[in-house]
Amino acid sequence: MTDTNAFANQLVILGQLGSIFENTFYIKPPFPDTDLIESDILDSFQFAELLYQLEQHFNLDVDTEKVEPDDVRTLWQIAQLVARALASLGTGRVSSLRFDNEASPL
Known about the structure:
Layout: H1 3-25, H2 44-58, H3 75-89
């Protein structure tokens, strides 16, 4: 996948993440580089709900034991993780996504 295609995929995913924020949390999506934790946009319960929504919307299996807050602090970081998982599978659907540094998203 070219860098242009990867970037385009990340932008599409970013739009889908924005929809999750509007439909789940009933708020305008934050800017892609806004720190969701530092800015108090999400509390711990909402963060857990976001992970659940990622699983549902993108057909992911998120291992919460492996989720590091620094990996999902911004919508842009989340979009990059999802895009890498899609690219690694070469399909339009994601069956599993791991958020650890030891394994690439699968």
